[in-house]
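I would like you to sit down with the record closing this message with an eye to the fold:
=====
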Amino acid sequence: SASTSLVVPTYNMALDLDHFLGSVLSSGLAARLEEIIVVNDGSTDGTLQVLEKWARHPDWAQKFKTISYPTNRGRFIARQLGAQAATAERVLFIDTRIEIPKNFPEVLAGLTPKVVVGTVVIPTDESLYSLYWDRSHRFIFSRNFKDREQGYWISLENFSKYVIGTTLFLSERSTLTAAMESFDGPQLNDDIPLLRKICETEKIWCHHSFHVIWRPRQDLKSFLSRLWERGPSFISYHVYGQGSPLKWGFYFGLAILGLTLGTGMAAPRTLLPLVALELLLLLLSILLFTRKPEEVLRLSGLHLLVILTFGAALLWGAAREFPLWRRA
């Protein structure tokens, strides 16, 4: 099989990075790789100490390499630097909050397409956050979950039908570096522009067998903070950029907000009951993706917080990324 360089961009995730590198070793993946390149994107936590620890590990031999710089420059630049430093025929991107399953090396060795997008498996029995992320995403992205069982090719023609990313991503190195070099600088939502650019020359394969174990952030503050961070990038692509069917959900929410504010101005006494009704309906929307009554009870509070946080993030993103303002 073709030689492979693993590139891992990381920023302030020392504990996750330590766990991830341990799984690279214990799964046997390290033995199948040409090199392991960790790009430290200006971390201010204990990342350097973790890298120093693993750099001394005898099982890495000369495969383990690091690139570090003092300030955070963003994931796009981190990945680009890693891909440019890679020497193997293929580049494998894997994010830090990942655990490598035992069969991963064999699956990787059997992949023949030039570009492959992987999938993630979430251990739903570990926390509320993992359970919520899995259940909600299986509902929102049901097409992805259904089609990846058989596998599918992504091209420019069907690109907007699927939501894909580069948490787990394998590409022929020349194809990847050429696509990255076509951009003038870092991208706000680097996954989608990069994958779309690659689709101009190569189709992308996706199948559930190529997967890793992934966990969302495991405390409330971090979980909601990540949702807030994703708001502008969602707006940048799904609403103002190339667009996808997800934009209609944003427009629907915007219409409801406008109707609520208009009603409140016209009949102030009705505003409080209307908002209470809307919050109740938002809360009941959890019935769309939960599977058991106990899941409804466990996830309801988190569900409401997620909707309110991500909704506010979308409004902030819509204002921040408004095309007329950006051109000005």
Observations:
- The longest strand covers residues 204-214.
- DSSP finds 14 helices and nine strands in the chain.
- The mean pLDDT is 89.
